[in-house]
Each structure stands twice: as structure tokens, then as C-alpha cells.
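hey m, so remember when u said the C-alpha cells were messed up on ur end? i reran from scratch. heres the input so u can diff it against urs
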Amino acid sequence: MMFFRSKAQQVPAMTLEGVLGPNSRLDEAGGLSVTTPEALCVAGDGQLLISSGKAVLALRAWGEEPALWKSFDHPVTALCGSPTGLVAVGLVDGTVSVFDQDAQPSSGWKGPFKLGTVTDCAFLSETELTLVDSGYPPNENVLSVAPWESTPNGKVLAVSASGEVRTVISGLHCPMGVSCDAKGDILVAELERACIVDAAGRPRQSGYPAYLGRLRKTRSGYVMSCLARRDPLIEFLKSEHDFVAEMKANIPPQNWISPRVSPAFSHDFPIELGATRLFGDIKPWAPSFSYGLVIELDDNLMPVRSAHSRANGRRHAITDALSWNGDMIAISKASGEILNLGPEGAVS
């Protein structure tokens, strides 16, 4: 099969250099094992809330054991907290509920609401909540499929305490994270497009070298979790439509040439044979479709610091990151851990 590079296909502008240069901060960070972690938020009383399968756990201080905050009938997919202590919880069945900091249903909110696939959420005010719908069903392998899907089915909704729902923006390509800037304007991170857009769909910043996850406001700017780094082979193959069509028609999605959650080696993925070196050792710079990356951004959404887990690491697929008690905390879905990267703003 012949390959022809399309000049119309532009690779991401940012490379893993400078403040994005590879390091081992994620692999060196302190860790806390948690069963199937997905999302984080800080409660009004200062506790760190952690989704763990069908439960939300609460952690009072790093080094302690997390306690059960509340359990649910379905896995938790999204968490967020408000300044006054409200906590919104999104479940895999599309249900969203709002609780007070004691894990009791909030008397000021009508809910629960059934609003589609809830990937992330954020409070716009104490009486309005914004939600991200990635556009993919809960059982879809989004990380495998999204790089090869051109239809923009994602959207951002807003729901009021009374239950009124409005569409903030639609036609997004796999949105994964939502936050608000200092002015209260909505910012949305799109996984595959490597960009952050506003509520009008205008790019605020683009060209990130990763598949974007959630975006959280911090004291100094923002922190962005990344599910994997962008791979040159995947970027190249986007211009090879016949090859991609044949791959999608004949190979299961889990074996597509796509980013992955786990760094585990498998002979089902022959392309990763390039990652094996002398005596089976995996080098940090080896080819890998999984990766761990947290990017700290300034108020203009430009990278200022980063934390990595490279090809030979295991703390890949960062699904959430935020600032808590002055430290940067992140989730590694691949290793099933909550990571403490140390003080916010620490030099990478």
C-alpha cells in the first residue's frame, strides 16, 4: 500500500521541549492506590473527593486512608464542587445529582437529572451547572475511536437548580473537560483536536502535544490532564484514508493504531515491538501509544510546567488533576493511583 502525505494535515505545533520536556515527575510522585479512579474535586470542607467505581471517597489529608463519602448504583464519571460546598456527581448512566458537603441531596436543587454521557462538570454559579457530553456512548472505547472519528457529536449543556436545561455549545469533537476562566467564561478541552475552545466554539489555545482530558482552574492559571501524548504515526495516518478505512473495517477498535490507557505490552500490538530493547528493557524514549502527562498552564492557557511518565513508566492515562492544600494531585487511570506531585508551581 502506498502512502502519500497530505499537506493539508497539520501536525500539532507544540513539541515535548522546554517546559514540556520529558521528565519523571509522575513516576517519582507519592501514590495512593484507589480502585478504578476517574475524577477528583475539592469539597467545601476542604476534603479531596475521589471517584472510585460506584463510590466517592473522601480524603482529609495526604497520607491518611480515604473514607467512603457516598456510594451509587452506577460508576461515577464526573465530579465538581462549588465555593459554598455543593458537590455534583455524574454517573455512567447519564444521571447527575447535586449534594451538600455532607453527601445529602441538596434541598435547593430539583434533580437528579438524566442528561446523556457526562464526562465532566463545573458549577457556573450556586444555581447553575455546566456538563460535558462527549458524544460517545458509555461503552465506547473513546481513546481508540476518537482519533479516527470526524463527526462532531459532543456538546456542553447547562442545567439550572430548577431543572431547566439549555445547550451552551454543540458540534464539538469529543469534548472531555470544562472549566471557567477568571471572567466566568466557559472553556472546553477537546480530546483529539488538541485545543481549548470557548462557549462560541472559538479556539482559545491549540496545538497541545497530547489527547486532552479535564481542565481545572488553579491559583496561578490552569492544570490540564492528558490521556496520552500525540503520536507522529497516528498524525501521519490521518491523511491515509484508504488505510484507515481498511483498519476500521477489519480490526477491532481496541487493536487500532490509537492512543491507549495502559502501557502493558501485548503481542496483539505488533507496532509496539519497536519499544523492546536489549533484554526486553523499555527505554523512556521508545515508541509508546500510552503516556502520562500533566500540563500546568498560565492564565493565557500557555504551558509553564509539566509532569511526565514516559514509555518505560506505568503512571499513564492521567484523567484528572487539580490543586489541593497547595499540592498538585493527579489520577493515573493506568496504575490505579492518586498521585501527589508536590507544591503547585514546582519546577519540572
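this time it looks ok to me. Helices lie at 25-28, 142-145, 232-237, 241-250. if urs says something different then somethings off w ur setup not the seq
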